Amino acid sequence: MACHTRSVSLPTRSHLFLQKAEEELIKLRACVGSSLTYEIMLDALKAVGCVYESINELLCMSSNQNGFSHMQHRRLVEQELEESVKLLDICCTSRDNLDTIKYHVQDLQMATRRGDLQASKSKLRGYRLIVKKANRDVKVQKLNKNEYPEGDSLAAVSFLLETREITISVLQSIFVYLAREIVSQKSSKWSLVSRLVEKRTIACKGDAACLRVNVEELENGVESLVRHLIQCRVSLLNICSL
Hints:
Blueprint: H1 12-32, H2 38-60, H3 62-65, H4 71-114, H5 117-139, H6 155-181, H7 191-199, H8 202-240
Helix pairs in contact: 1-2, 1-6, 2-6, 2-8, 4-5, 4-6, 4-8, 5-6, 5-7, 7-8
């Protein structure tokens, strides 16, 4: 996604929020374009949250809210409000899928502790299926790409369009990362299970435990993102009620 340069004459405080959002978006594009690691995925979720926090501050400022009195501008806000429902649904579904994945990893961890290879294979198969479903749940959702004219009062709303698109990319990247994490790059799809069950080293036993913690942290990151989206939606509703 190309970086857009805007020329806006916002009040100083508003300009600071706008600048912060732009900086976080630049970080996000770098994260999505990088090799997928747990740290990068977590940083990306935090960066998305920071963007929405800045956007919400812009939406809440009375100077911006007054600029939405124009009928055309109000329609654009209403369109964005409609899209926010779709994005919120995608994020909630992703959060719930991560919760399910976490319990699959926990079951896998218990099976490998018992040294039960067949049960471990079954749990791993379930993990792979739910990760595949989670990725598909994100991909099948289609969001409209509304076009917004430049203007001081529409700066926050236009940012929502860019952030919406990159949020979907981040969610997709998370499940691509999780799909790769369970499989060894050089051997069969059961390689992790084989190492956990047959070698029984302390390091191998920690693999599933570490993955469970990572999934839980990613789930918490998406939950935090959901809260930011709800705040932005409330601000959009307040604008529509002016």
